[in-house]
Amino acid sequence: MQKGQIRVQTENIFPIIKKFLYSDHEIFLRELISNAVDATQKLKTLASIGEAKGELGDLRIDVELDAKEKTLSITDHGVGMTKEEVDKYLNQVAFSGAEEFLSKYKDANIIGHFGLGFYSAFMVSSRVEVLTQSYHEEAPSVYWSCDGSPEFELYEIEKRSRGTKIILHINEDSQEFLEANRIKGILEKFCRFLPVPIYFTEAGEKLDEEQKPINNTNPIWTKKPSELTTEDYQNFYRELYPFGETPLFWIHLNVDYPFNLTGILYFPKIKQSYEIQKDKIQLYSNQVFVTDEVKDIVPEFLMLLHGIIDSPDIPLNVSRSYLQGDPNVRKINTYITKKVGDKLDEIFRNDRPSFEEKWESLGLFVKYGMITDDKFLEKANKFFIMQDIKDNKFYTLEEYKMATETLQKNKEGKHVILYTTDPVQQDAYIQASQQRGYIVVKMETLIDAAFINNMEMKWENVHFVRVDADIVDNLIDKQEKNESVLSKEETEQLQQLFSFELPQLHATVEVKGLSPDTPPVVATRPEFMRRMKDMAGIGGGGMTAFYAQMPDEVMLTVNGNHPIYQALLKESDATKKEKQIRTLADLALLSQGLLKGNDLTNFINRNVELMQQSDKSTAGAEA
Question: What's the domain of life for this entry (predicted)?
Fold first, then answer.
């Protein structure tokens, strides 16, 4: 029997490991099972080259919980260790001291690449035992034990079967790891796709021959795309997201140069409710779950995708949970952007009807990408589409320019894209524009306010105007003038009649000679101010937040050429005239959703009163 001290230059290494090595103690189980998988895979490799003799047997990993004895055991049938190897790997922690350890790994949470994974067991254990038998049959079986201090025991024991069994005596602070559901949850989270079958049992349980492993040892991202069917991809999506709708389509990542990367990214359906969930992409390293925070690897605009990425080349510090800044990460980010852009372009070119059907969901990804990634913007300019509110026809930017070349260019030669954010509320403005032959497109998603602002800077000679931003005559500024049928005195009188105070609004009134078919009063909200308020509504800061506090600006354009004013200006009853004028203004405000609360109630009461007066007048005339 050998006794001694684990060779480190400080006796404080174990308390430091316990306290600082991991931010989340549940990681210990992943580390120990990862070691068991490595031992199993090594045995397969040695057997394939003839170094490991004899039958491999059932290469599985067993996790057994004994709540009564307060132990958790992990058993594999891999390469095992000799006494010399145990001494080398378990008794030498290669750190010069606590200060250097903390200095070098102060941001660390997981060990993996630094050979410390085994020691994570001491975060939850008062004592750890190891029973192991090397694949070298002549080597004796070995027992090792340590209570978390630098002192250990190491001696030979009666012959065991090949492999290693680690027994953790769970400490008082870690009793949660004696709950079966807790252990199952950890296994399902971290070990779901490990390549060696993993079985979980509780002490005293009868072993069921039909028991299935908790993991899928051969997930589809490890296969070639040519080996897979549509059904395979959809079934795997359901395995990842049991309650998710069938995805729109998917991209199979499979590259081995200049870095290794495999995985599958799914485009989910996104409903108009915008219940969007990020962090649905999981990062794996050789089928071991690492994290679902992949913002450094996946471009920001693709964080809404679902799926899995697996790469052994993504550098991890001692904490696998946090990615280090590294050229490979940037390369992978660029590769994924290109892959997604190529896929969208391919679908658009080969099956445009299908692409258009999916646009309600795809548009969010595409617009977000065009805002945040100039490389993607270059590619997306070819397949970005806009839907005409009139006949639901889709236009690319170039197609829209061609279709509107004659009618929708302003005095500066810019193409004016007319859009609606609410086809129902803005219907009157839409109809007025369509009567002029204008094409009005939908821009009704949460991201469109930011998209419009960005594209005006990135696209040449393009200007966006919301369909209700001005009277139809002014939507496309061509410096054309319409003559008013009113005299100068009548115009001034009408201007004066409409100059009343509107609570909660900053209103400006102008009298113009418009088409007689245009409504008597048109309420519009200046494009700039409305955009600022829209941006504030989705969380814009700085000056945007300042504009959010300001009252709504509205322009009341009085159509002097509308026939109603010929009679109204001659009305002798001043009170009646005032009420009619106010009603015309309120109708215009109502079309913009700016008539609310007490103002709306007054509008209703006033109209009832006018109708009653009209009925009395009619009755009197008949008498």
Answer: Bacteria
